[in-house]
């Protein structure tokens, strides 16, 4: 191991690397419970999603460790899994509903595009083209987006009240005046609501105390509370569950290419690609800096480039296994903080994910309220990027705000990115009329802005 991973050269040893890998696993293992919950709401089997999540995280993290010698873990990403589910659910009331199979196909195709962008170096150009404030705004907007999902799924937040207006069809939520989508506080006496609040308190306290893997421990502690209070029936839940993985239920190559073209969800494919583009880049660069990989700029850039290639393959590979977009996890920094410096850290994390395949019966006990609390806290972590946004300059502040506001309030990540990019090109152009050359507008930004305007003009907001 010392020779293969160059442990001494990186100032580490096998014991430190393995412990760092287990630390990374503990901080991100919550995805094993969250992903089945989120994608299960979109019509996929929770068990099949669990298998795909553990396999994708295990396989591609090990590949990253072995072939790139990089101490970063990969797994289905938060935010994009929520976008996956919301896209499927929101389309069900339209004339061209999107099925889970179509959404998986969109993820697979975005991975192919991502791979092409990586090989042709266009990916690096796009990263340079979009201003930093907008990149950070995307992270913040996604954080608020998944927070709303957590609040809504738990019942802490409700949208409207039961319809009392006779001329509005049943099933449409309205307030007493008949207006739709009015946000209300949920009923605190409902078990899912108070369990979510308990989970929030437990996770928050452990994070303040800097407990490693606070989110995971908070999920488990909330599950124990749910069992004690009788809101989870252990006997009934475990009845018939399998400790040995049943790979016959894996949704392998569960695609519908013809349906994708008939439905026309090009914007969904573009959104998967665009969000993953910046999410992965920020995580890989940030973790590489913390691990000291970028001390040698030439070697560091080469390793980051290889990591991007593996990540691109993992996007399509994860879709083939039956899960939403696989991406690099910022929680990998926890393992790096514990001394992880090489691919042995990633391999250790990947092995732990594969071992988790035998834990489905225990994971099936976790109630939705526990994972909802985790979603809200993950939102807190993502919103921290707001401090990197330049709100003093309106050319950056207004587009960044549009991204942050439009994502959660229109319940669509693509809308936020679209309005942010177009408004930046417009405002930067106007700003340059006043202060010549102050704001850089990359030629790719002009192309993206035109494509976005054409998309909404030709297809509309539901396209």
Q: What this model shows, in words?
A:
The chain has helices at residues 2-5, 14-28, 31-40, 46-68, 80-91, 100-119, 122-129, 132-154, 191-208, 214-228, 234-238, 257-263, 266-290, 297-321, 332-337, 343-355, 360-363, 368-383, 394-409, 413-434, 443-458; strands at residues 74-76, 157-159, 183-185, 326-328. The strands form two sheets. The chain has a two-stranded antiparallel sheet with strand order 1-4. The chain has a two-stranded antiparallel sheet with strand order 2-3. The longest helix is centred in the middle third of the chain and has 25 residues, at 266-290. It has 21 helices and four strands. It has 463 residues and is mostly helical. The chain folds into two domains: 2-155 and 190-386, no CATH class; 389-458, no CATH class. Helix 3 crosses helix 4 and helix 20 packs across helix 21 (443-458). Belongs to the nucleobase:cation symporter-2 (NCS2) (TC 2.A.40) family. Azg-like subfamily. It is a multi-pass membrane protein.
Q: Sheet bearing the most strands, described?
A: 2 strands, antiparallel
Distinct helical segment count: 21
Strand content: under 5%
Number of strands: 4
Shape: globular
> What count of structural domains?
2
SS-based class: mainly alpha
How far the N terminus sits from the C terminus, by CA atoms, comes to: 51 Å
Mean pLDDT across residues: 85
Spans of 5+ residues with little confidence (pLDDT < 50)? 161-179
| Biggest sheet: strand arrangement | 1-4
The helix content is 55-70%
Radius of gyration: 22 Å
Series of secondary-structure elements, N-terminal to C-terminal: HHHHEHHHHEEHHHHHHEHHHHHHH
């Amino acid at each position: 191991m010392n020779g293969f991973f160059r442990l001494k050269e990186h100032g580490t040893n096998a014991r430190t690397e393995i412990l760092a890998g287990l630390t990374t696993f503990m901080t991100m293992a919550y995805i094993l419970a969250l992903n089945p919950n989120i994608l299960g709401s979109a019509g996929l089997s929770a068990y099949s999603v669990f298998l795909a999540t553990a396999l994708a995280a295990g396989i591609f993290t090990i590949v990253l460790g072995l072939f790139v010698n990089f101490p970063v873990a990969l797994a289905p990403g938060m935010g994009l899994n929520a976008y996956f589910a919301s896209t499927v659910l929101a389309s069900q009331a339209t004339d061209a509903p999107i099925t889970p199979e179509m959404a998986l196909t969109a993820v697979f195709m975005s991975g192919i595009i991502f791979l092409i962008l990586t090989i042709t170096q266009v990916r690096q150009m796009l990263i340079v083209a979009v201003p930093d404030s907008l990149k950070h705004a995307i992270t913040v907007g996604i954080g608020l987006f998944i927070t709303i999902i957590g609040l809504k799924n738990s019942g802490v937040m409700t949208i409207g009240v039961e319809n009392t207006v006779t001329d509005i069809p049943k099933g449409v939520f309205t307030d007493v005046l008949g207006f739709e989508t009015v946000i209300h506080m949920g009923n605190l006496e409902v078990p899912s609501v108070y369990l979510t609040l308990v989970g929030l308190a437990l996770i928050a306290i452990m994070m303040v105390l800097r407990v490693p893997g606070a989110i995971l421990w908070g999920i488990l502690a909330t599950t124990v509370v749910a069992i004690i209070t009788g809101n989870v029936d252990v006997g009934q839940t475990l009845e018939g569950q399998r400790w040995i993985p049943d790979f016959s239920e894996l949704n392998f190559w569960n695609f519908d290419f013809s349906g994708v073209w008939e439905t026309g969800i090009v914007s969904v494919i573009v959104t998967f690609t665009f969000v993953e583009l910046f999410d992965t880049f920020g995580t890989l660069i940030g973790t590489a800096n913390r691990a000291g990989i970028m001390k040698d700029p030439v070697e560091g850039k080469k390793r980051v480039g290889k990591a991007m290639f593996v990540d691109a393959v993992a996007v399509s590979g994860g879709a083939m296994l039956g899960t939403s977009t696989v991406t690099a996890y910022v929680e990998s920094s926890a393992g790096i903080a514990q001394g992880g410096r090489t691919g042995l850290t990633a391999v250790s994390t990947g092995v732990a994910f594969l071992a988790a395949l035998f834990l489905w019966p225990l994971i099936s006990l976790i109630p939705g309220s526990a994972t909802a609390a985790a979603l809200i806290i993950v939102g807190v972590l993502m919103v921290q990027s707001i401090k990197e946004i330049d709100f003093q300059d309106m050319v950056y502040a207004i587009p960044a705000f549009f991204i942050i506001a439009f994502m959660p309030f229109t319940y669509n990540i693509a809308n936020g990115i679209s309005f942010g990019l177009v408004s930046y090109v417009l405002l930067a152009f106007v700003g340059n009329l006043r202060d010549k050359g102050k704001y850089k507008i990359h030629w790719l930004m002009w192309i993206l802005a035109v494509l976005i305007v054409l998309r909404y003009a030709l297809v509309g907001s539901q396209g």
